[in-house]
Amino acid sequence: MDKRFKPKYNIKKGDTVVVIAGDDKDLKKPRQVLEVIVNIITKHTKPSAQNTRGGIVKKEAPVHISNIMLWDAKAGAPTKVKRSREDGKLVRIAKKSGGAIK
């Protein structure tokens, strides 16, 4: 993907987030971002040559970026994020507490 059209997300690998929509919605349970794929689904599979038994398989699936919010440890609640430049670097700032997010 060309850098010119690369999307900019406020969520990065290693952040603590809260799921705000979907089956795993829980606004009080913060979770760690391992990578973009964070959702675990159950998939029903038919028996085939590779999988002779079939059955229910648990598998990771992506969660849309709009269904998660960053967790603010100072406020103890989910927060929105704004970006500002400090010393020439782009810094993410939590809107609830006003603290920088590392």
Describe the structure.
With 102 residues, the chain is mainly beta. The protein is 0% helix and 39% strand. The protein has no helices and eight strands. It has strands spanning 16-19, 31-32, 39-45, 55-61, 68-72, 77-79, 81-86, 89-94. The strands form three sheets. A four-stranded antiparallel β-sheet has the order 2-1-5-6, with no helix packed on it. A hairpin with a 2-residue loop joins strand 7 (81-86) and strand 8. The chain is elongated and about 60 Å long. The mean pLDDT is 86.
- Rg calc: 18 Å
Number of strands: 8
Beta-strand percentage? 35-45%
Structure classification: mainly beta
Q: What does the largest sheet look like?
A: 4 strands, antiparallel
Strand order of the largest sheet: 2-1-5-6
Note the total helix count: 0
Overall body shape: elongated
SSE string: EEEEEEEE
Overall pLDDT, averaged?
Answer: 86
Level of helix content?
Answer: under 10%
Stretches where pLDDT falls below 50 for ≥5 residues? none
The span between the termini is 26 Å
What is this structure's SSE topology?
Elements: E1 16-19, E2 31-32, E3 39-45, E4 55-61, E5 68-72, E6 77-79, E7 81-86, E8 89-94
Antiparallel strand pairs: 1-2, 1-5, 3-4, 5-6, 7-8
